[in-house]
Specification:
By secondary structure, the chain is α/β, with parallel strands linked by helices. It is about 40% helix and about 15% strand. The protein has helices at about 5-15, 30-35, 50-60, 70-90, 115-120, 135-145, 160-165, 185-195, 210-225, 255-260, 305-315, 335-345, 360-370, 390-400, 410-415, 420-425, 440-450, 455-460, 470-475, 490-500; strands at about 20, 40-45, 65-70, 95-100, 125-130, 155-160, 200-205, 225-230, 235-240, 265-270, 295-300, 350-355, 375-380, 405-410, 430-435, 480-485, 505-510. The strands form three sheets. The chain has a seven-stranded mixed sheet, with helices on both faces. Helix 3 (about 50-60) crosses helix 14 and helix 9 (about 210-225) packs parallel to helix 11 (about 305-315).
Length: about 500
């Protein structure tokens, strides 16, 4: 077999069976090799940023890596923004990047670039495959690296002549093992703090936001009086009206500081310290008081579910322990967006997957859907906008029996609008809701926090008008049926029609 065939065989034997691809000339032998491997699902993407975000969405729903297929340095560069988001989500991904043939590297060709240097900032592991005999060994190393907890990005570089040359040898990666248990001393310290009655926040992230984890956290809070919060941005939160709908830390730094104002201890379960999204004049970087003490109970690579369960079992009921406050979502204002969110909460299908790139409206929709049918909530983890539409692609392929609902801001939706084509081609059960306020609304809020004085002319620069974006026309052009909803009743009807049929659809919700 040639090198490309060995690579495909290694992926398949190692249970990496989905490839999100935007190939070029250097990757043609890999594409040809896929013909002999029907067990691998090949998903074409019209832009590399779609491929990388789709692989992220797939990983968040399965815990397993998919592969991306990218073309040389520029193709990898196009994927990087959403690889940044995947890195922050701690998603396992294997990138396969085609390279010029080894004998062609010295030629100053138009597409020549320093591919390892391009890969390094958003990869935990980067390695070339310069001979067919080493394909299996290096590919196995990439897959096993991606599977390391909490999830890593591995990028292997495959020169064209390695792909087309005979002598390829396949390999098989080991299955992913269990997470390591946290140190007993960390659990003991957490128990001591929870028993002390001090003002304590249990901060959850990553794997600590699964249903099992939040059930344990809820019992711990009830026993101790501690408050529970989720990180501001999370890869996935599993929610149920019968369970704990975890409050997220607020985006606005002033609100976050107020929320954590009197906290004395913060217990971190697969979470990072709560800091501001940006720096602002006259405002702190940390959302918590300087007197508060941070305690890593379960680090990112450790078993946070085990830690929460053990603490729950060991923590006795305290007589007179206060009920943990602020677990219910705050009441939303009576606005057109809040009314629309209430409609969605009422109509949301059982076990849906909500992909949130709502930007300025994200907190409102999250709060309003606290009592909706059980669902998973996927967020924009790294802040690099343009993830929502393609993240939905990966989530839908990973969970084909669950309806995916993408809450998509109109401005950031244009970054990776090509994902609509993949939705249509793969006939994915995705309902995209475009929150059409015809502006980069988040930047108006940020302008105030930055104390930036901008004239009306400057504000006009942030509006998406003259011309308005016609989402219905765009979506229909990509093969995704679309309608416009101007009222709550029209939105309700559009949702019912979308949820009642298979395949993708788009609703432009005018706000």
């Amino acid at each position: 077999m040639n090198g490309a065939e060995a690579l495909v065989r290694t992926l398949l034997d190692s249970e990496v069976d989905v490839v999100f691809a935007n190939p070029g000339t250097s990757e043609m032998h890999f594409v040809a090799a896929l013909e002999s491997a029907p067990g691998i699902r090949y998903v074409p993407c019209l832009f590399e940023g779609v491929a990388s975000a789709a692989a992220d969405g797939y990983a968040r729903m399965t815990g397993r890596p998919a592969a991306t297929l990218l073309h040389l340095g520029p193709g990898l560069a196009n994927a990087q923004a959403n690889l940044h988001n995947a890195l922050k989500a701690r998603s396992p991904i294997v990138n396969i990047v085609g390279e010029h043939a080894t004998f062609h590297r010295e030629a100053e060709s138009p597409l020549s670039s320093d591919v390892p240097a391009i890969a390094q900032p958003f990869s935990h592991w980067v390695k070339p495959i310069d001979e067919p005999a080493s394909v299996g060994t290096i590919c196995v190393e990439a897959i096993e690296t991606a599977r390391e907890y909490p999830g890593k990005i591995a990028t292997l570089l495959m020169p064209a002549d390695t792909a087309w040359s005979d002598g390829g040898k396949a390999g098989k990666a080991k299955s992913r093992g269990a997470r390591v248990k946290p140190e007993s001393t960390a659990l003991d310290e957490a128990l001591r703090i929870l028993r002390s009655g001090r003002n304590t926040v249990i901060l959850l992230g990553g794997s600590a936001l699964s249903a099992r984890a939040t059930e344990s956290a809820s019992r711990i809070a009830s026993k101790s009086g501690a408050r529970i919060r989720a990180e501001l941005l999370n890869a996935r939160i599993d929610r149920s009206p019968d369970g704990l709908s975890v409050r997220r830390l607020p985006f606005h730094i002033d609100n976050a500081v107020a929320d954590l104002r009197n906290v004395e201890h913060i217990l971190l379960f697969d979470a990072d310290p709560p800091n501001a999204f940006f720096a602002y004049p006259g405002r702190p970087s940390a959302a918590y008081p300087s007197t508060a003490k941070l305690h890593v109970v379960a680090d990112h690579h450790e078993d946070a579910i085990y830690a929460l369960n053990e603490i729950d079992k060991a923590l006795e009921e305290r007589i007179g322990a206060p009920v943990a406050p602020d677990l219910a979502a705050p009441r939303a204002q009576d606005s057109s967006a809040a009314i629309a969110a209430a409609v969605l909460a009422d109509q949301l299908p059982m076990n849906a997957v909500v992909v949130d790139e709502a930007i300025s409206l994200g907190e409102l929709f999250y709060d309003m859907l606290a009592g909706a049918a059980p669902h998973s909530w996927l967020q924009l983890t790294g802040g690099a906008i343009g993830i929502g539409l393609p993240l939905s692609v990966g989530a839908a392929i990973a969970a084909p029996n669950r309806r995916v609902v993408a809450l998509q801001a109109d401005g950031s939706g244009m970054y990776t609008v090509q994902a609509l084509w993949t939705q249509a081609r793969e006939n994915l059960d995705i309902t995209t809701v475009i929150l059409s306020n015809r502006s980069y609304a988040i930047l108006f809020h940020e302008m105030q926090k930055m104390n930036a004085e901008v004239s009306q002319r400057g504000k006009d620069m942030l509006r998406l008008e003259r011309p308005e974006i016609d989402w219905v026309h765009i979506s229909n052009g990509f093969g995704v049926p679309a309608v416009r909803a101007d009222t709550a009743d029209e939105f309700r009807k559009a949702l019912q029609e979308s949820f009642g049929r298979s395949g993708p659809s788009l609703i432009e919700l005018v706000l």
